[in-house]
Amino acid sequence: MNNKTKKILHSSEFYVGVIIILFGLLIQMRSGQFFTGNNLVDILRSFTIPVMFCMGELMVLISGGVDCSFPAIASLSMFVVCKYMENVTTNPLPFFLVAALIGLVFGILNGVIIGKYRFPALIVTLGTSSICWGVMQGVFQSREYPLCPALLSVGKAKLLTATNAETGLSSELPMITIFMVLLLTWFILNKTMLGRGIYAIGGDIIAAKRAGFNVFGTTVFIYAFSGMMAGIIGVFRACMLQAVHPNNLEGLEMTAIAACVLGGVSITGGKGTVLQACLGMALLTIVSNSLILLGISTHWQNVVTGIIIIAGTAATAIQNQRNAKKLAVKLTES
Q: Where is pLDDT greater, at 19 or 222?
């Protein structure tokens, strides 16, 4: 067995991928509906928004921090632009630009406080989250709101439609795609000096400073990127639902963090890939969408999802510990 094969077999991505395949086969054997076109489209539709949020969270986790504010930033940005810009323009692009600007402001606020004063990222982003929810509910009196025609046309644009020949049920995938966000995140992390700085800060912030990386500037960028993406994705979410639901994203931060860690992203920083985050979110999405096909009541979905998160993160942690011990033995022998 060559080194490349050994590396694949010992990676967290391999095990999560195997679990996804086995779980899909189990559902297919029990229901015969998992690999139908409409079910796969439903899963991809449910996967789209959470995995885009995972990209911002991925960068933050790699840097050694955690971001709990992006659902609140997304909800505030979504509600403000959808309510107050509906009579301003019929072009959907300004809605996304203004939402991105709102998210960028809150992201920079997070980054400056965390980067300059070294406050715990968890506390800072929880505070930002509370501010956003409070402003949205108190100042803007948030409520469910119909989507304006400019954004409604974006939400109604379909990429494809799949129909189940047996049941006659159809599912539609909106034109909103995840590929640009995934590619942008991959490019930053893997092909730029900025990406190297993000990994370096998460690995050892003192060593990163000595290596010449701008720790403060990189930290501000990480949270600014997460905030800006949150603003844009919030409007995407409204387009997909074809309505404004201000509280619909509440609690998604825990799902995104769990998906990243489940996929193999290190909670302590310095390690993680786009593929790991995608696989972790794919597993959680398949579980939450497909348990009903196994005859499991929706009341038990959170229980089963929680068990999978705990088991998966524990397995990843054990694997990381084994790899660390093997590395330590090799260094000792050399």
A: 222
- Contacting residues for 118 by C-beta, under 8 A, at least 6 apart: none
Among candidate residues 103, 49, 122, the one with its CA nearest the CA of residue 231: 103
Q: What is the largest CA-CA distance in the chain?
A: 70
List the chain domain ranges: 52-251
- Identify the H or E element spanning 160: strand 158-163
CB 75 within 8 A of CB 133: yes
The reported pLDDT for the residue numbered 320 is 67
Provide the 8-state DSSP code for 152. H
> Residue 164: is it exposed, middle or buried by C-beta count within 10 angstroms (0-12/13-18/19+)?
middle
Q: Is the torsion defined by CA of 289, 295, 300, 305 positive or negative? A: negative
Q: What is the DSSP string of 273-321?
A: -HHHHHHHHHHHHHHHHHGGGGT--GGGHHHHHHHHHHHHHHHHHHHHH
**Beta strand 170-174 pairing with 158-163:** antiparallel
129 C-beta neighbours (distance < 10 Å), count: 23
Q: Is the four-CA dihedral 78, 82, 88, 89 of positive or negative sign?
A: positive
Entry pTM = 0.91
Q: Is 204 helix (H, G, I), strand (E, B) or coil?
A: coil
Residues sharing a CB contact under 8 Å with residue 170, sequence separation 6 or more, in sequence order:
38, 161, 162, 163, 164
Separation of CA 221 from chain center: 17
